[in-house]
Design brief:
This protein is mainly beta. Helix content is 15%, strand content 39%. The strands form 3 sheets. It has a 4-stranded mixed β-sheet, covered by helices on one side. Strands 1-2-3 form a 3-stranded antiparallel β-sheet, with no helix packed on it. A 3-stranded antiparallel β-sheet has the order 6-5-10, with no helix packed on it. A hairpin with a 6-residue loop joins strand 2 and strand 3. The longest helix has 13 residues. The protein is elongated and about 60 Å long. Pfam families: NUDIX.
Length: 170
Amino acid sequence: MKEEELYKYCPKCGAKNLLKGKIDGLLCEKCGLEFFINPKPCCAAMIFNKDKELLLTKRGIDPYKGFWEFPGGFIKCSETAEEGLKRELKEELEIDLEVLENYKTESETYTYKDRDFEVLDIFYICSFSGKPSPKDDVVDYDFFSAKNLPKIKPEHKKIVDELIKNEKLT
């Protein structure tokens, strides 16, 4: 179910029959509220060791429980993407992160409890200090070469394939 399908009533006045298609979101005919449906911002860290192996974390919760992915997560209100990424890696791996460069952004659909949310992923190349220790929704972590990759979350697999093609991951 798409996010805009969740809203049956205007969140301001309670009126039924929100209009779709007039704007990028919903419009209430009664009070005129324009309710925009925007992507949820997420951040992910791309961390390489000296052997050009990539750090991935194993998900301990759904969606994609048991799959491997880049560490990171949702950015909170009033956080910058870099602040959110540092917070997420502190929560998930208990490491201090240094953001080195913005690698790219990607759009994806994130399905959670039968709801589809549009997500904007911001990928950063990073380094870290400290010894990683899995916490929160991460159950494991490891560094992987292109030759020994685990089962990766599909949205992140295409980024890993791009890293291999560009010889950033060997």
